[in-house]
From TrEMBL:
It holds the Pfam family Hexapep_2. The lineage of its organism: Bacteria, Pseudomonadati, Pseudomonadota, Gammaproteobacteria, Alteromonadales. It comes from the Bacteria. This is Gamma carbonic anhydrase family protein. InterPro entries: Hexapep (IPR001451), LbH_gamma_CA-like (IPR047324), Transf_Hexapept/Carb_Anhydrase (IPR050484), Trimer_LpxA-like_sf (IPR011004). Signal peptide: none annotated.
Length: 180
């Protein structure tokens, strides 16, 4: 990890848990907290400037993903922080903006999750899907499309994969940390 990865905003600098991996090409700015065993892969841009970003344990944010927040305002006094739970896999080139994700979620490559959206635990979001503002995705389902629609109940193998994907990335980031 390189010093240039982490930038303060208004005196607030990202906070990292134990055994975290952040690729040297990723940039984290401001009020960001990363849980233990989390991994941030190449070209991730995370800006916790006008609100906070919280990422849980064993979560992986893959290459080219953009993480941002919504500013506090008179009409939205708390704004929309970005909250990502434990054991979440965020695929390549996703955009998560001021939304809340629970635990054991897979966000497919290129998906967009917009302000105020809530994704409950144990959800699989298909590649290229768009989750509109303020939409809630209920636990235990596969969601696909633009805008996203509930496709079906998760198969047992898919539900098991949600946790396994997180484990796979914890193991991979450990290998990267061992090489540094």
């Amino acid at each position: 990890m390189h010093k240039n990865n982490f930038r303060s905003y208004r005196g607030i600098t990202p906070i990292l848990g134990n055994a975290v991996y952040v690729d040297e090409t990723a940039v984290l700015v401001g009020d960001i907290t990363l849980g233990d065993d989390t991994s941030i892969w190449p070209l991730v841009a995370a800006r916790g400037d006008v609100n906070k970003i919280t990422i849980g344990a064993r979560t992986n944010i893959q290459d080219g993903t953009v993480l941002h927040v919504t500013r506090k305002s008179a009409s939205n006094p708390d704004g929309n922080p970005l909250v990502i739970g434990d054991d979440v896999t965020v695929g390549h080139k996703c955009m998560l903006h001021g939304c809340a994700l629970g635990d054991r979620i897979l966000v497919g490559m290129g998906a967009i999750i917009m302000d105020g959206a809530i994704v409950e635990d144990d959800v699989f979001i298909g590649a290229g899907s768009l989750v509109p503002p303020n939409k809630t995705l209920k636990s235990g389902y596969l969601y696909v499309g633009n805008p996203v629609k509930q496709a079906r109940v998760l198969k047992e193998s898919e539900a098991n994969f949600l946790k396994q994907s997180a484990i796979n990335y914890v193991e991979l980031k450990a290998e990267y940390l061992a090489d540094t």
